[in-house]
């Protein structure tokens, strides 16, 4: 913006100065020429009465006196063809003036002024003076130089003023941009001191108010989520007490493990809502997490006669996300299969290493995704919590990965969750 305003002022000022100085320069040139012509004409006219009334000797004395004080050469052409004064050619203009008409004509090297003098013996005499081009332009170059310097000075002043105005506007705008970047980075305490023109001050005040409003809304949302999570601890405690009354030790151990995982998730929700940020350095073994979650869902798959195909790497495969977060994401992907495909539909779970991380692929042989609406399987329905695949998508976004929805080789849906590997420890 500063450069554009600078160029705009430069162009506008240049046009105004050109429109003002060019006519003024031409006027100065014409005034100088008219001044020199008038001075030469005065010198010639001062001799005309003497030529008309006196003899040649008197005219010669007067002419010598005039030439001693005048810068312009004076010549008198007599009717008999003789001349007196500065030698000059009897041109066609002189012949025309000899007919009784005073004229001024352009001649090579300057301007010729001819005064017709009538009333003398023998006919009309002509008094001639000549103004050179240098005399016609005397002082013009200096005046043009002064005008040029004046124009350059005015242009420089205009550009300095434009730069000051641009700085006064650019500073507050830059501060507003910096505030928006800080807010987008999560610094909700950032504020700006409104400055500059009234419009920019209004924008700064509105942005400060918006930042405060966002902070208030997020604080309320975090407190509500934390409060809800705390409330979940009561039924979790009751559920844990119920598991202790089970007579089957294996069943009690399995349900207790589920309750422990759920309690860890609730604790993590409380921590994340109060301090929402990605924890640097957190990682887990994707193979181990996937093995545990597939084993958990296999019991329900057996009850619904679903064939499960699992493909896992031989060794550990670390990814840059927490164990609980990855478990929740895998549960969301598998729950999506059970919720949106009929019983008996086979599905597969694949974990593979890719460049810079790992990819989890969950595919099924169900009806697939609606045509032209791939994210539909991630939306809430009347029987769902409304989270859909948002848990898996949020896990991918937080870790810096991606989630893709498409079609499986069997014609059903296929969801791929790609996660980066953890950064190397220095």
Please tell me about this protein's structure.
One of its GO terms (molecular function) is kinase activity. Strand 1 and strand 2 form a beta hairpin. With about 425 residues, the chain is an alpha+beta fold. About 20% of the residues are buried. It folds into three domains: about 140 residues, Beta-Lactamase; about 70 residues, Signal transduction histidine kinase, dimerisation/phosphotransfer (DHp) domain (Helix Hairpins, Orthogonal Bundle); about 140 residues, Histidine kinase-like ATPase, C-terminal domain (Heat Shock Protein 90). It contains ten helices and twelve strands. The strands form three sheets. The chain has a five-stranded antiparallel β-sheet with strand order 2-1-5-4-3. The protein has a five-stranded mixed β-sheet with strand order 7-9-10-12-11, with helices on one face. About 5% of the residues have low confidence.
Describe the structure using short key phrases.
about 425 residues; alpha+beta; Beta-Lactamase; Helix Hairpins; Heat Shock Protein 90; 3 domains; 5-stranded mixed β-sheet; 12 strands; rod-shaped; virulence; His_kinase_dom; phosphoprotein; cell membrane
Question: Which SSEs are present, and which pair or pack?
Answer:
Layout: H1 2-53, H2 56-69, E1 74-77, E2 83-85, H3 92-97, E3 103-107, E4 110-120, E5 123-132, H4 133-136, H5 140-184, H6 198-243, H7 249-274, E6 284-285, H8 286-303, E7 308-311, E8 318-319, H9 323-340, E9 347-354, E10 357-364, H10 390-399, E11 402-407, E12 413-420
Parallel strand pairs: 7-9
Antiparallel strand pairs: 1-2, 1-5, 3-4, 4-5, 6-8, 9-10, 10-12, 11-12
Helix pairs in contact: 1-2, 1-5, 5-6, 6-7, 8-9, 9-10
């Amino acid at each position: 913006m500063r450069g554009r305003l600078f160029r705009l002022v430069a162009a506008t000022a240049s046009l105004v100065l050109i429109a003002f100085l060019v006519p003024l320069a031409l006027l100065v040139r014409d005034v100088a020429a008219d001044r020199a012509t008038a001075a030469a004409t005065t010198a010639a006219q001062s001799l005309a009465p003497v030529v008309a009334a006196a003899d040649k000797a008197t005219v010669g004395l007067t002419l010598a006196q005039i030439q001693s004080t005048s810068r312009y050469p004076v010549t008198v052409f007599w009717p008999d063809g003789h001349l007196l004064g500065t030698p000059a050619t009897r041109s066609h203009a002189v012949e025309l003036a000899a007919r009784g008409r005073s004229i001024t004509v352009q001649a090579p090297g300057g301007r010729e002024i001819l005064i017709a003098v009538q009333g003398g013996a023998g006919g009309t005499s002509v008094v001639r003076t000549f103004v050179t081009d240098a005399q016609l332009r005397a002082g013009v170059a200096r005046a043009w130089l002064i005008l040029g310097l004046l124009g350059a000075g005015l242009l420089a002043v205009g550009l300095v003023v434009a730069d000051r105005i641009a700085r006064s506007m650019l500073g507050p705008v830059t501060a507003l941009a910096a505030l928006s970047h800080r807010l987008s980075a999560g610094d909700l305490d950032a504020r700006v001191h409104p400055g500059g023109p009234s419009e920019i001050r209004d924008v700064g005040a509105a942005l400060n108010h918006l930042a405060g409003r966002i902070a208030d809304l997020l604080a309320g949302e975090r407190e509500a989520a934390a409060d809800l999570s705390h409330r979940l601890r009561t039924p979790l405690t009751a559920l844990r007490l119920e598991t202790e009354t089970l007579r089957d030790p294996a069943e009690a151990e399995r349900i207790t493990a589920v309750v422990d995982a759920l309690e860890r998730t609730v604790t993590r929700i409380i921590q994340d809502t109060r301090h929402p940020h990605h924890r640097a350095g957190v990682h887990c073994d994707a193979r181990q997490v996937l093995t545990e979650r597939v084993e958990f869902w296999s019991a329900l798959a057996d009850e619904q006669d679903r064939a499960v195909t699992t493909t896992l790497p031989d060794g550990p495969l670390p990814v840059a996300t927490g164990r609980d977060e990855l478990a929740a994401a895998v549960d969301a992907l598998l729950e999506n299969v059970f919720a949106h495909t009929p019983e008996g539909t086979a599905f597969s779970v694949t974990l593979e290493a890719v460049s810079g991380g790992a990819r989890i692929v969950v595919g099924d042989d169900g009806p697939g995704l609606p045509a032209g609406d791939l994210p539909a399987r991630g939306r809430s329905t009347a029987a769902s919590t409304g989270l859909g695949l948002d848990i898996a998508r949020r896990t991918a976004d937080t870790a810096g990965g991606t989630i893709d929805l498409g079609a499986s080789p069997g014609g059903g849906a296929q969801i791929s969750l790609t996660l980066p590997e953890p950064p190397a420890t220095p």
